[in-house]
Design brief:
mainly alpha
Length: 237
Amino acid sequence: MNQAPNTTGLAAGLRDVARGVGVISPVLMVYVAIGMAYGVLAVDNGIAPWLAVLMSALVYAGTAQLVGVQMIALNLPPISIIVTAAVINARFFVMASALVPYLRRLKWWERMLYATQLTDATFALHIARLPKTDAGKTEIFTTNVVGHLVWVGSTIAGVVVGQTAGNLDAFAIDFAMPAMFIGLLVPLIRDRGQVLVALGSAVATAGFFAAGAAFWTILITTLVGLLIGWGADRWAK
């Protein structure tokens, strides 16, 4: 007797893929803008095109890549570049810890794979969605993989533009990343404590950057935000 194909499982899988694409789609244009800007900056600073694309594939961290390219152009020691990237990306330890309760069902190697594609955007999207929905693995990883592919593809486009059409300064695309973060942050603010965290972190960012904290600003501001949130939570209780 011939068995009918399991169309139910296939349909469910396709629905999860569609949901995953839908979750990441609001930030893809920002990925395109920043990815292209990075590609242009890389080739403008003498980075080999293949190396610029490889960095997007393996490092996959916009701020660290943009800073790293400029440090490479200045011929700074490799250890300085590595330490700087580590400091900038240290915030992902905090983000990952916040997602732990919602990723426990994943196998250890799946959590490792998830971690390699964790970005500010995917964190904000998942921390807002996972507590409310029982999102499946297919949806979660579709969101991450699509974002990663678009980032790499945008880098390739930026490398081509950088080799043929100069820079993209006239388009002011450097504002795309702050705009994306503001758009991701606002829906996550639900109470007074979170308002305090957002405002305190904004003030700390401006203050420490103006004081010359440079790439340490992100890490310091993250710690300031944590302390404000902890204090607000203690006060409320």
